[in-house]
UniProtKB/TrEMBL annotation:
Residue stretches making up the Neurotransmitter-gated ion-channel ligand-binding domain: 26-202
Name the UniProt record assigns to this protein: Uncharacterized protein
Listed Pfam families: Neur_chan_LBD (PF02931), Neur_chan_memb (PF02932)
N-terminal signal peptide: 1-21
One cellular component term from this protein's GO annotations in UniProt: membrane
Family, as annotated: Belongs to the ligand-gated ion channel (TC 1.A.9) family.
GO biological process, one term: monoatomic ion transmembrane transport
Topology relative to the membrane: Multi-pass membrane protein
Organism name: Sinanodonta woodiana
Localization in the cell: Membrane
Record-annotated membrane-spanning stretches: 226-248, 260-279, 291-311, 402-427
Residues annotated as domain Neurotransmitter-gated ion-channel transmembrane: 233-366
InterPro entries named among the record's database cross-references: Neur_chan_lig-bd (IPR006202), Neur_chan_lig-bd_sf (IPR036734), Neur_channel (IPR006201), Neuro-gated_channel_TM_sf (IPR036719), Neuro_actylchol_rec (IPR038050), Neurotrans-gated_channel_TM (IPR006029), Neurotransmitter_ion_chnl_CS (IPR018000)
Assigned keywords, A-Z: Ion channel, Ion transport, Membrane, Signal, Transmembrane, Transmembrane helix, Transport
Length: 431
């Protein structure tokens, strides 16, 4: 059991020991900085280039602003180099093997962001103290919000892959003076899978040179998470496709037809606006999706005009004769239809007869009779159509059917074209 006085003595001895250790650290600090000139870079006396190692640690991807073409990440640079002026003998300083010194008192590299989104940036505002080892090795960490300019390619929106560079250089120094090597790590535990909108696909580093200066690129490649756009934009557009065809199934004399067609037309314009808001305002290259939408807007305008045309036909006065050519066209298609039903009918009738004999039920007989009668009367009516003068309403219905199938074909063709182009632009296994 420790008595209170023994406890006080222990505290006193420990603090004495701490004071003496502090003294050696202060001595070391003062001696190191005594003849140090921070404006002179290390290695200049031995006439060799300073080897600077830079590790970029990206801790979080904040955002890729596709409209302004800006990538924002939070990251810090770990920098390592050697300063031959900052060496000491450990045994002379109570075994102190490293010491922390304020960066403003030492030479530190000024790392410039070469491709900033806004203005040029030198890392160092948010930095640690400099750790100096007895053998002159120095490590320093400076972190910040990094906002770089990033060329966004939205041709395949929303199945696009974006590549953004963080390009840096030791500000002002030639490669023969400061020669940096770069590498990059991601803080995987902090940064599991990109952010809500983007997946990180891969990272890379590369060097490039310009008139004696050496630049280092840290490249991040992202893939858009397309599910959101697929459900909120592409699926509604495909549904609109079908809706735009429904207009040919509304009776021609119904005035609502034109407003329905115009509503669908306006819906396409709204979606075109939504997509334009989400992508950069560049024309090289254009997004395939907006080109597709533009084409759909034109088709929708054609549908609206066709609708107006059909409504106009259907309300024509019955005194105006239907032109010969249209009558001929209609009789051609109706003849083909009657011919087909005439070929099919006898077989059906004999089948019906056989069934009726087998069941021997009076009720079934009556029903079958009624059916056969109605069928034959239908045939008679259809047959008459060819000879009888068609009314304008029948002409309108006839054109409705033709236009319905025509625009159905156009819709399917456009969808196939869109998907062919998108798939041709995507590499294998990108979706
Ligand atoms: C600093 O420079 C002075 C004068 O040149 C010299 O006497 C002294 O030993 C130097 N101190 C250290 C720690 O190098
Ligand atoms: C440094 O080295 C270069 C080439 O090796 C030489 O031309 C230059 O004179 C040297 N400078 C000094 C100060 O020694
Ligand atoms: C460090 O200092 C101790 C004591 O002054 C000395 O014995 C030793 O040789 C020195 N070591 C080096 C590498 O100079
Ligand atoms: C490095 O990044 C810059 C800016 O994005 C770019 O212009 C340059 O081509 C890149 N160089 C390499 C080698 O990737
Ligand atoms: C810079 O470092 C690289 C790799 O360490 C090396 O290949 C290159 O020759 C160095 N450049 C100079 C000017 O020393």
């Amino acid at each position: 059991m420790m008595t209170p006085s023994a406890f006080h003595f222990a505290v006193f001895v420990t603090s004495c020991f701490l004071v003496s250790a502090h003294n050696s650290a202060e001595r070391l600090y003062n001696n190191l900085l005594l003849n140090y000139t921070k404006g002179v870079r290390p290695g200049i006396e031995s006439n060799c280039s300073l080897h600077l190692e830079i590790f970029l640690k990206v801790s979080s991807l904040l955002n890729i602003n596709a409209v302004e073409e800006v990538m924002s990440v939070n990251g810090f640079f770990d920098m390592f180099w050697r300063d031959e002026r900052l060496v000491w003998n450990k045994t002379e300083y109570d075994g102190h093997s490293s010491i922390m010194i304020d960066p403003s008192l030492l030479w530190t590299p000024r790392i410039l962001l070469v491709n900033p989104a806004r203005r040029f940036q030198i890392f160092g505002t948010y930095s640690s103290e400099v750790r100096v080892q007895f053998d002159g090795f120095i490590s320093w960490t400076a972190g910040d919000l990094i906002e770089t300019n990033c060329n966004i390619n939205i041709r395949n929106y929303p199945f696009d892959i974006q590549t953004c560079d963080i390009s840096i250089a030791p500000f002002g120094y030639l490669e023969t003076e400061v020669n940096q090597t770069s590498s990059m790590t991601l803080q995987v535990d902090m940064f599991p899978d990109g952010n809500g909108e983007w997946d990180l696909v891969q990272t890379n580093t590369a060097d490039w040179y310009l008139s004696g200066y050496k630049f280092s690129n840290f490249t991040l490649q992202y893939k858009r998470k397309y599910q959101f756009v697929l459900t909120t934009i592409i699926a509604p557009i495909l549904i609109l496709n079908v809706m735009s065809l429904v207009v040919f199934r509304i009776p021609p004399n119904c005035g609502e037809r034109i407003s329905f067609a115009i509503t669908v037309f306006l819906s396409y314009i709204v979606y075109l606006g939504i997509i334009t808001e989400n992508i950069p305002k560049t024309s090289s290259p254009m997004s395939l999706l907006s080109l597709y939408l533009m084409a759909k807007v034109s088709v929708s305008a054609c549908i609206t005009m066709a609708t107006v045309f059909i409504v106009q036909i259907s309300v024509k006065s019955p005194n105006t004769p239907v032109p010969e050519r249209i009558v001929f066209l209609m009789s051609m298609s109706s003849k083909r239809r009657t011919a087909r039903s005439k070929v099919e009918d006898p077989a059906e009738n004999t089948q019906d007869d056989g069934k009726r004999i087998k069941t021997k039920s009076d009720r079934a007989e009556i029903i079958a009779n009624v059916e056969r009668e109605s069928k034959s009367s239908l045939i008679a009516r259809c047959g008459n159509l060819g000879s009888k003068e068609p009314t304008w309403e029948e002409v309108a219905i006839y054109f409705d059917t033709i236009l319905f199938f025509f625009f159905l074909f156009v819709m399917l063709l456009f969808i196939v074209l869109l998907f062919t182009f998108v798939c041709a632009n995507l590499g294998p296994g990108q979706i």
